[in-house]
Amino acid sequence: MSGSIKTVALLGYTGNIGPHALNALVANGNSNVTVFSRSAQDEKLPNATFRQIDLASSSVESLAQEFKGHGAVADLTSIPDPTVSIRVVDAAVAASVYRFIPAEFSHSPSNVKARALPLWAGKNLVYQHLTKLADERQLC
Protein backbone atom coordinates (compact mmCIF):
# COMPACT_ATOMS: atom_id res chain seq x y z
CA MET A 1 0.00 0.00 0.00
CA SER A 2 2.91 2.41 0.55
CA GLY A 3 3.28 2.66 -3.22
CA SER A 4 -0.23 4.09 -3.34
CA ILE A 5 0.54 7.12 -1.17
CA LYS A 6 -0.01 10.05 -3.50
CA THR A 7 -1.18 12.72 -1.08
CA VAL A 8 1.05 13.95 1.74
CA ALA A 9 0.28 16.44 4.51
CA LEU A 10 3.45 18.27 5.54
CA LEU A 11 3.44 19.96 8.97
CA GLY A 12 6.21 22.32 10.05
CA TYR A 13 7.29 23.62 6.67
CA THR A 14 8.96 26.77 8.03
CA GLY A 15 11.64 24.87 9.94
CA ASN A 16 15.03 23.77 8.69
CA ILE A 17 13.77 20.49 7.22
CA GLY A 18 10.45 21.57 5.69
CA PRO A 19 11.60 23.08 2.38
CA HIS A 20 13.93 20.13 1.76
CA ALA A 21 11.17 17.64 2.53
CA LEU A 22 8.78 19.39 0.13
CA ASN A 23 11.39 19.43 -2.64
CA ALA A 24 12.16 15.73 -2.09
CA LEU A 25 8.49 14.76 -2.13
CA VAL A 26 7.85 16.66 -5.35
CA ALA A 27 11.05 15.33 -6.97
CA ASN A 28 9.96 11.77 -6.18
CA GLY A 29 6.56 12.09 -7.80
CA ASN A 30 4.35 13.22 -4.92
CA SER A 31 2.54 15.88 -6.86
CA ASN A 32 -0.18 16.31 -4.27
CA VAL A 33 1.46 17.79 -1.16
CA THR A 34 -0.47 19.97 1.28
CA VAL A 35 1.66 22.23 3.46
CA PHE A 36 0.05 23.10 6.79
CA SER A 37 1.52 26.19 8.44
CA ARG A 38 0.41 28.77 10.98
CA SER A 39 2.09 31.46 8.89
CA ALA A 40 0.25 32.93 5.90
CA GLN A 41 3.60 33.90 4.36
CA ASP A 42 3.88 30.37 2.95
CA GLU A 43 0.61 30.41 1.02
CA LYS A 44 2.24 30.84 -2.40
CA LEU A 45 4.37 27.72 -2.42
CA PRO A 46 5.27 26.17 -5.76
CA ASN A 47 4.18 22.56 -6.20
CA ALA A 48 2.03 22.43 -3.05
CA THR A 49 -1.38 23.31 -1.71
CA PHE A 50 -1.29 25.61 1.32
CA ARG A 51 -3.54 25.46 4.39
CA GLN A 52 -3.12 27.91 7.26
CA ILE A 53 -3.74 26.20 10.57
CA ASP A 54 -2.64 26.57 14.19
CA LEU A 55 -1.93 23.05 15.41
CA ALA A 56 -1.71 24.14 19.05
CA SER A 57 -5.33 25.33 19.14
CA SER A 58 -6.86 22.78 16.76
CA SER A 59 -9.03 19.88 17.91
CA VAL A 60 -8.61 16.27 16.84
CA GLU A 61 -11.85 16.58 14.87
CA SER A 62 -10.82 19.71 12.95
CA LEU A 63 -7.39 18.27 12.16
CA ALA A 64 -8.96 14.98 11.03
CA GLN A 65 -11.09 16.95 8.56
CA GLU A 66 -7.94 18.60 7.21
CA PHE A 67 -6.10 15.26 6.92
CA LYS A 68 -8.92 13.37 5.17
CA GLY A 69 -7.79 12.05 1.81
CA HIS A 70 -4.08 12.20 2.64
CA GLY A 71 -2.12 8.96 2.52
CA ALA A 72 0.59 10.23 4.84
CA VAL A 73 1.22 12.94 7.42
CA ALA A 74 4.81 14.08 7.91
CA ASP A 75 5.21 15.97 11.20
CA LEU A 76 8.27 18.21 10.98
CA THR A 77 7.22 20.46 13.86
CA SER A 78 9.17 21.16 17.01
CA ILE A 79 6.27 21.96 19.32
CA PRO A 80 7.41 21.27 22.90
CA ASP A 81 3.91 20.43 24.20
CA PRO A 82 3.44 16.67 23.63
CA THR A 83 -0.35 16.97 23.78
CA VAL A 84 -0.28 18.84 20.45
CA SER A 85 1.68 16.04 18.76
CA ILE A 86 -0.63 13.41 20.28
CA ARG A 87 -3.68 15.31 18.93
CA VAL A 88 -2.05 15.39 15.49
CA VAL A 89 -1.43 11.62 15.65
CA ASP A 90 -5.00 10.94 16.81
CA ALA A 91 -6.34 13.13 14.00
CA ALA A 92 -4.31 11.16 11.46
CA VAL A 93 -5.83 7.93 12.81
CA ALA A 94 -9.35 9.43 12.74
CA ALA A 95 -8.80 10.49 9.12
CA SER A 96 -7.63 6.97 8.18
CA VAL A 97 -4.17 8.19 7.20
CA TYR A 98 -2.02 5.19 6.25
CA ARG A 99 1.45 6.44 7.25
CA PHE A 100 2.52 8.87 9.99
CA ILE A 101 6.08 10.22 10.07
CA PRO A 102 6.84 11.65 13.52
CA ALA A 103 9.11 14.57 14.32
CA GLU A 104 12.05 12.41 15.43
CA PHE A 105 15.17 13.90 13.87
CA SER A 106 17.66 14.16 16.71
CA HIS A 107 18.26 10.61 17.94
CA SER A 108 16.90 7.10 17.64
CA PRO A 109 13.63 6.73 19.54
CA SER A 110 14.84 3.32 20.72
CA ASN A 111 17.98 4.77 22.35
CA VAL A 112 17.22 4.21 26.04
CA LYS A 113 19.99 6.54 27.25
CA ALA A 114 18.76 9.43 25.10
CA ARG A 115 15.16 8.82 26.14
CA ALA A 116 16.19 9.02 29.81
CA LEU A 117 17.16 12.69 29.47
CA PRO A 118 14.54 15.08 30.93
CA LEU A 119 14.59 17.07 27.70
CA TRP A 120 12.90 14.15 25.91
CA ALA A 121 10.09 13.52 28.41
CA GLY A 122 7.47 14.97 26.06
CA LYS A 123 8.78 13.08 23.05
CA ASN A 124 8.65 9.88 25.12
CA LEU A 125 4.89 10.34 25.58
CA VAL A 126 4.40 10.82 21.84
CA TYR A 127 6.65 7.85 21.01
CA GLN A 128 4.75 5.59 23.43
CA HIS A 129 1.45 6.70 21.90
CA LEU A 130 2.70 6.04 18.37
CA THR A 131 4.07 2.64 19.36
CA LYS A 132 0.72 1.67 20.89
CA LEU A 133 -1.17 2.73 17.73
CA ALA A 134 1.29 0.89 15.49
CA ASP A 135 0.98 -2.26 17.63
CA GLU A 136 -2.81 -1.99 17.23
CA ARG A 137 -2.32 -1.62 13.45
CA GLN A 138 -3.98 1.81 13.41
CA LEU A 139 -0.91 3.47 11.84
CA CYS A 140 2.17 2.47 9.90
Automatic annotation (TrEMBL):
Pfam families: NAD_binding_10 (PF13460). This is NAD(P)-binding domain-containing protein. GO terms for molecular function: oxidoreductase activity. InterPro entries: NAD(P)-bd_dom (IPR016040), NAD(P)-bd_dom_sf (IPR036291), NmrA/Isoflavone_reductase-like (IPR051609). Keywords: NADP, Oxidoreductase. Belongs to the NmrA-type oxidoreductase family. Isoflavone reductase subfamily. Residues 14-113 form the NAD(P)-binding domain. Transmembrane segments: none annotated. It comes from Fusarium albosuccineum.
